[in-house]
Design a protein that fits this description.
Elements lengths: L6 H13 L5 H10 L1 H10 L12 H12 L7 H8 L4 E3 L21 E5 L3 H5 L2 E5 L6 H16 L3 E4 L5 H11 L4 E4 L13 H10 L1 E4 L9 H14 L3 E3 L7 H11 L4 E3 L10 H8 L4 E2 L3 H11 L5
Parallel strand pairs: 3-4, 3-7, 4-5, 5-6, 7-8, 8-9
Antiparallel strand pairs: 1-2, 2-6
Amino acid sequence: MNTAITDDERIARAELSSLAEPGDKLLGTLVQANGAAKAMTLIRAGRLPHDAGLPVTPDARRAMSRWHAALANVPPRGEVLRALDGRFRLVCPGDAEWPGGLDGLGDAAPAALWVTGNSDLRFSCLRSVAVTGARAATAYGSYLASELSAPLAARGWAVVSGGSFGVDAAAHRGALGAGGVTIAVVAGGLDVPYPAAHDGLYGAIAAQGALVSEAPPGVPVSRLRFQARNRIIAALATGTVVVEASTRGGAMTAARHARDLGRPVMAVPGPVTSELSAGCNDLIRSGHAVLVTSASDVIDTLTATSCPAG
């Protein structure tokens, strides 16, 4: 059950989104033990008392030094308040819009999410599917991503993906074309569209769904943020479908996170001669993914497991 969040706690979570590296479990432990406002007070003081909820170890001391140094990245309080009053909303644990599936990430859960768009994030995630794959997708991968996503969206399933080129873009466009809801989890601030060529696509997603980031406005993308956002894609959705992927890359990371969360992982098989299908074929061969070839296969798998993310 959600409980009301105080203004001080909300501001502190906004500040933490500027200070934290995504997925920092030590920082997550500190926040879980103390709340965000007290955690920020401790970080500003640069000290780690024995009752802070973290063991006072060399790793924890180094982490505190790192967080204290990162205070330089936190904008002044007035700027934080203006950001909270602008075109983006900050969704925090305790808010009615907070998707419960994120809680499965434990101490690696984001402190908060910056969101824009017309859809309620939690409600959309109650029936949602992550569709992800290669950025350098082949025509086969892009076609299948769209052909899977359109009927899923038409049947009331929100399509979650990462807003990138290739499979992600095809999945979003398939859902949009069917008049359904789609959610893009992006790696940088919502006011810094990346890739820039997707500015129009992001506008359409916001009009018909939601754009989500754990990075505050103004923060550019980074390699770490690209990798870390895959855990959010997996946690928001009730299951993950890998359409086309090599044995390395973000789609395989999303599949691993989904598996760790106990959510269904599905994969579309591809040609054995294609390196971009090697990841999907390996997931199926190893038993780590259910073979799917249609939206009906996906829905059958999800309804059989009944794993709500909201």
